[in-house]
Amino acid sequence: MIGQDDKVLRVGLLPLGFFFCLLFVFPLGMFLWTSFTVKTDTSTVLTLQHYVDVLTSDSARAALVTTLLLSVVTGVVSLLLGYLLAYQVARRGPVLSKLIFMAAIASLFTSTIARALGWRVLLAYQGPINGVLVGLGIVSEPLQLINNFTAVAIGMIHIQTPIVMLALIPVIEALPKDLERAAIGLGSSRWRAFVSIHLPITWRNAVPIGLLTVMATASYFTTPVLLGGGRVDVMAIQIQQASQVLFDFGYAAALSVVLVAVIGVIAFLVFLSTNWRRGAAARGGS
Question: What is the model's pTM?
Fold first, then answer.
């Protein structure tokens, strides 16, 4: 009976596999193929010209640097904020934890466009944030907080922090509370117990979540457009312009492949470093 159920399950998965290949693998493969080809009047020629154009383009290199910087800043800050919020949800009282959790869920169900437009209002030259800063005497005149890298970073951190928080809650909850109670009972402060117990044990589980944040940020288009005001050129904007304005799909595909390759190399190096440290710690403990 078990073998028959497994056979039925495998047969049932065939349509899902077919649609996955048809709607995802095949278009992705065709997009990748486009980056290596140039169409002439008579035939299609294999070439690396699109990649040469990407690597020799000043605007593409600048957009790649901006994208990586935005992704790293967003990933690091979102990981720190998300970790602190997840700790509050997992370790604090039910009222505070529920309020934080509900705020995170509400943020996730809010449209990305609505959040970006909300930040445009808050960060405007005559907006509430500048009004408070000027009113308190912190600055003498309003700051330029919109249409720049800072605005885009704030918008991306707002998007990614709730996701990081929700992903880290199970990680922190899996850590026994007795360890923290023992440290506090021996005279340690709650902050010192957090730094000396929680972080050393859970940081390896937090690193992949931070990497997912970096990868997700690198592909965002709407927030950089709305909060950057055309002054923050990221790879997603370059790809959109190449494919929908210039209709140069080969160049757009090459831009996408370069972005995925660079992010993949960064993720590989971070995982390699994490596993090396884990192996070194295991060898030291033995």
Answer: 0.84
Give 26-51 pLDDT, tens digit per residue. Answer: 888 888 898 898 887 777 888 898 99
Decide if 158 contacts 119 (C-beta within 8 A). yes
Domain boundaries defined on the chain: 30-278
Beta bridge partners of 39: 44
What CA–CA distance (Å, rounded) separates 49 from 53? Answer: 6
- Are 34 and 250 contacting, i.e. CB atoms less than 8 angstroms apart? yes
Q: What is the pLDDT of residue 41?
A: 73
In the predicted structure, residue 278 carries a pLDDT above the cut 90: no
Query: SS3 sequence, the chain?
Result: CHHHHHHHHHHHHHHHHHHHHHHHHHHHHHHHHHCCEEECCCCEEECCHHHHHHHHCHHHHHHHHHHHHHHHHHHHHHHHHHHHHHHHHHHCCHHHHHHHHHHHHHHHCCCHHHHHHHHHHHCCCCCHHHHHHHHCCCCCCCCCCCCCHHHHHHHHHHHHHHHHHHHHHHHHHCCCHHHHHHHHHCCCCHHHHHHHHHHHHHHHHHHHHHHHHHHHHHCCCHHHHHHHCCCCCCHHHHHHHHHHHCCCHHHHHHHHHHHHHHHHHHHHHHHHHHHHHHHHHHHHHC
Give me the pLDDT at residue 5, please: 59
- The superfamily CATH assigns to domain 30-278 is MetI-like (1.10.3720.10)
